[in-house]
Model the fold of this input.
Amino acid sequence: MTTTHSASAIGLDTVAELAAQLRVDSVRSSTSAGSGHPTSSMSAADLLAVLMTRHLRYDWDQPGLPVNDHLIFSKGHASPLLYSVYKAAGVVSQEELMTGYRRFGQRLEGHPTPVLPWVDVATGSLGQGLPDGVGVALAGRYLDRLPYRVWVLCGDSELAEGSIWEAFDKASYYQLSNLIAIADVNRLGQRGPTDLGWDLPDYARRMEAFGARVLTVDGHDLDAIDKAMTLAGETAGHQPTVILAKTIKGKGFSEVENKDGWHGKPFPPDMAERAIAELGGIRNNVLRGPKPEPAQPGPVPDKPTTLPVSGGRPTPGKATPRYEVGAKVATRKAYGDALVALGARDAQVVALDGEVSNSTFADEFEQNFPERYFEMFIAEQQLVAAATGLSVRGYRAFASTFAAFFTRAYDFIRMGAISGVDLRLAGSHAGVEIGADGPSQMALEDLAMMRAVHGSTVLYPSDGTSTAALVDAMAETPGISYLRTTRGGFPGLYPAGESFPVGGSKLVRSSDDDQVTLIGAGVTLHEALAAAEILHGEGIAARVIDLYSVKPVDADALVAAADATGGRIVVAEDHHPEGGLGSAVADALLAAGQQNLRLTRLAVSGMPGSGTGDELLAWAGIDASHIAAAARTLVGR
Amino acid sequence: MTTTHSASAIGLDTVAELAAQLRVDSVRSSTSAGSGHPTSSMSAADLLAVLMTRHLRYDWDQPGLPVNDHLIFSKGHASPLLYSVYKAAGVVSQEELMTGYRRFGQRLEGHPTPVLPWVDVATGSLGQGLPDGVGVALAGRYLDRLPYRVWVLCGDSELAEGSIWEAFDKASYYQLSNLIAIADVNRLGQRGPTDLGWDLPDYARRMEAFGARVLTVDGHDLDAIDKAMTLAGETAGHQPTVILAKTIKGKGFSEVENKDGWHGKPFPPDMAERAIAELGGIRNNVLRGPKPEPAQPGPVPDKPTTLPVSGGRPTPGKATPRYEVGAKVATRKAYGDALVALGARDAQVVALDGEVSNSTFADEFEQNFPERYFEMFIAEQQLVAAATGLSVRGYRAFASTFAAFFTRAYDFIRMGAISGVDLRLAGSHAGVEIGADGPSQMALEDLAMMRAVHGSTVLYPSDGTSTAALVDAMAETPGISYLRTTRGGFPGLYPAGESFPVGGSKLVRSSDDDQVTLIGAGVTLHEALAAAEILHGEGIAARVIDLYSVKPVDADALVAAADATGGRIVVAEDHHPEGGLGSAVADALLAAGQQNLRLTRLAVSGMPGSGTGDELLAWAGIDASHIAAAARTLVGR
Done:
């Protein structure tokens, strides 16, 4: 049977029918695919049936409508349920559900990704949907200022992830009453019971302590769910809401209800048949819930802030920064300057930082555009997740912290690539150059980490002018882009206005009789230039390349340099030997089929301690003296 | 003045003098170094003065004594305070403190590392010391069964890290009454006030909700601190304790007390002079607190468990597993088998998993050795941190989860290398081979990530026999070792007992007239073998290398193969193109000065969706057919 209901007519008896349909379709789709998570879908079917018919304000024909509510499955493995919802909404056909789920070349992937127009963010790495939802809700409350709500379905297992608590902490700090987490507490994880089981009061205590309003319900009592969602959806007050639902895994099929050993397993066809029978058979109802009302942006709300009492440093101008050739400036300072200028030109630019904005210089943006700055405190996972959620709503989010601490958020960056969002990440204090603080603060793996991300762009400027240009370029760069900045100040190399295309490089020193090519980026470019000067004094002509675009890399320039200097190349990088600048050079030259290469790679091989930047660059063997020595060896001197 | 006190004689008046000394030394050391965090040290000086004189049971002359308490500075930036404590204990001289702090080649690094014998783990990336402490406390309660306590000094800023809440969750689940967190709530972060400020009741609610006993004190009231530490140190009950201390940043120097703008800044010499004067001048007291009583391991306590209700799968034997050549076995299954055999031979071997033990096959270990298995649920940061803490106490901890989800713990892995601990990480479900689950579950960055870790070992077996051998090898491998396993079952290639040294490789197919070398590991080795068979049918002889040791890599074998096959090499990997197997090959050959290379690298360049493993290997261009095609091109066919 197929019936179509309009929103106003949907009573709870119809919702109950829909819940059964969602369960049946979850069973059918996963059995047809031979994999998937039917029982995890069945526990949440009543929650979703009530939500989609009576609370989710969503125009299924216009998924990009700014006033639409958002629905995020943080428990992405419940994709059979999500896709069954899509079928019930009439946007996915029964045929697609039965032949497309988890199949090659199809869009109904094993875990949801935004290849589907109704999916905001990819999920499947647990504990990420709620932090991402915080980002969307931040946009809704402070930037869009639209009355949409962000509904996030969470599993109970993922509540063990620290990122969930980073999300609650920030949601309450930023008073995100437009964020509603629906916690599907079905007691059973993948391999057995969860640590808290059905101890809903314990969950509630934790959530309330983190500032959420908690509405505890029987997750199979449609009336109770409906009342809780009504209350939650009013978005009154200044707290996020959790609908904490006690549910039964496999609910609706007595053979598996509340039984261990059925996580992530489709039912064999005979069991599926019995399940469908017990659930009342196949249905093909199409029901749509309420559409959002048209709305205009509301007034700008007060935003919580802990701006430094002392007021921080003076506000720079909002013009594009200009740096003198030869004048010392730290690239992290140029990042802050450039971000302010960009923010002045483009109202979609927002900035976030992990409580180190006076080191990354994101504080300059905060002081100029406090309404577009979000302090994430020391919570790097939420930092990247918030940027992800802001990107969903079209904002150009720049997130900054020490480069070393982006390692904390690598799973979120990886998932950001799968989500297809644009993330602009700025990592300061790269490498041993930082000196006295020691190895915990030294990013020495970041280039490898970021290069390995799908579709990423990795940039590493050496002076103020190039930094400013690359910050501008990041604003226009799709996907995950990463800017690596340096702690110390180094002399400007380029006049203001010089262009730095992504994928390019700069030949900063050359002659017709160069014998060797020296390649650096960031601090090692300055060392390479000093090395070239040393070599010049010894009668060795060296060309120097600024490889500011680590990915994509300028293969043509590398090939030309190799050809010009007999294949003799020295690359120096303030990074571990694997996966960074040297790898980018080697990969490009080998891919180009370059022959007769004599490539010497200088990198940080040992475990650094404290010291001055100069001492540590020398200790690591990546300073001018070592670069010159490597060049001498290559030219046979 | 210099006086030496014995433990029994140390009254609170003496402790007060010590606290002033610790503050003075924190000021002096950081001013002398020109960097460091005096104000963050001064807020916690009273807490540490009471702790070291009256509660920390520690034999300073025998830091390796098993019964010693442990002291971890989770707020590693308070290193001036820690080193001042060491001076007060008489193990660091005044001269070292004044000339060694943050200097090149010295051991008093900017943030503590275990180059010092009293430091368990490196800290400085916030939110890690407490999770590491959970690992040490797990060892104390369940394995060592000794009465030592683990005292962890936490900053308030780092309480925003989700990993802190993963730690509290596991500490209460595992009833770690031997774990005492001392939270130094000084209200001020690096760039301004923290989000909760001095709202101690709010912190207490959160900690209590997560199962901790909270003792709130004025962090400058020595008597109150002493009473709280007495209570905490009794380790009665089954909860971790938090001493939640309201403190004043910069306490003791009125010019900076509770003032913003003084984070991470040493005082200029004139200010330092005034601070020292206000604090009563320089002191050189040496005081030691109580030593631990000798103790024998206590009875084995009941360990909380959520073993699957259904009992999981049958228990395998404890003998070294033997696999038949040609018989299909998944390397993840062989991991579980081998771990059981290893555990039977070596009582120091323990295992942990992130709630996917029935996928990683760590559940086999749990069923055989439940007393040496720790379920970490879905909290990968705590998973790695617990392994770190267990390693501190000499256990050989193997931690497993899906390879993709180790990205969640990259900061902890990086810090583990700085801590010098031995971590044995096993990541299952690598690459597109997993099929239907889609990209969120596919590790495609893990080899790059793990290769870039200092001193790491990266292993990637292709069959049961090699997996078993490499698991054994990991038990003897120092530093961070990583085993990448595959979801599907593939035919055994090697007879039982074959040896697989770390840094080696296997020439699995060769002839005297090979024209091209095919290199694979894991699933791509099987594809390479199939490709060689295809090519053989076309009259092209191809040799095949199993590069099971990705780092260190067998450079000699690669050079020999390149020489034997005219530089023609095809590498195929189920990983993104950057930083993985292909990079390992390219890096080694270039470093060896290999000339006339014709290297074709096949890797996963696009964004995968769902599908079967075979479909996705073909789509990615890393299956036998694509390897054969690449080889044909290289040999000009």
In short: The radius of gyration of chain A is 28 Å.
